[in-house]
Each structure stands twice: as C-alpha cells, then as structure tokens.
Amino acid sequence: MARERYTRLLDLRPRWRAFINPWLLRLPNNPERLAFILHRTTGVIASLFLFFHIISTSTPARAGWEAWREEVLNLQGLTPISLLFYIAMGAILFHGINGVRLILAEALALGIGKPEKPKPPYIAPLLRGFQRRLLYATFALWIILWALLGYIMFFT
Fold this sequence. Notes:
With 156 residues, the protein is an all-alpha fold. The protein has helices spanning 2-11, 16-20, 31-57, 59-63, 65-73, 80-107, 130-155.
C-alpha cells in the first residue's frame, strides 16, 4: 500500500519539461495549479486591457471629444467589444481577489502553519485547511462578483 502510494507520487513529479514550461505540469485534483494558471493568464489579460484602455481613452486628444463620445455610445448594448470588456473585467476581478489571497498567505503567513521536515520525493504539499478554504472562497467570490457585473452590464 505504502509502496504504491510512493510510486504514484513519483509519477506526479515534475519532469524536465515542467522546469522549462511550468504550464505543462499536470496534477489531478489540484485547485492551486488552476489558481496559478488563472493568475498568470489574468495578469496578461489585465495588462493587455490596460494598454488598449490607455489607447482608447487617448482618443479625445487625437480626434476630439465628439469622436470619443460617439465611440463610447456605440459600445452600449451587447457587442463584441462589450463581451471583451466583460471578459477583461472578470480577469481583473480574479487577479485582484487572488492577489489579496496571495498577500494574506505569503506576506502575512496567514494559514501557513508549522514547517514540515522535507521527505523524499520532495513534492510540494497541497494546500490544506484554511489555505484550501481561502482558495475556494476566492473562486466563489470571483464567480459571484463576475455574475453580478454581467447582470449590471447587460441587463440594467
């Protein structure tokens, strides 16, 4: 029994490709990995949104206030641009909420617990207890706020 578990853990170890590209590491039932991937992805989306937002808000300087006002009025309703805006807002929401979770865990050591003696095969332990609940609360809060944002954007 213990030998099978140890062999299964050895099979989950990151291979050399995971050191080159950490996105290739696949672990079953690992919400921490999902949060890590989403945090990186939403950071890229938020950066792209910021870049294009700066360009779009500089329109009055280039074309005048009337052109900018027309552009903004054309965005009302359900358009491809408003859907992209909704996706960007969801990315920014998740990145912010998960960032607060990471600050609580890493800077304030909230829910970290006592250090453990490392044991071979040196696989990073999964989050337990408070950290796991905080991760699930992050996902739940993000989905609720994103749905509320969609309701406000598209139905009011």
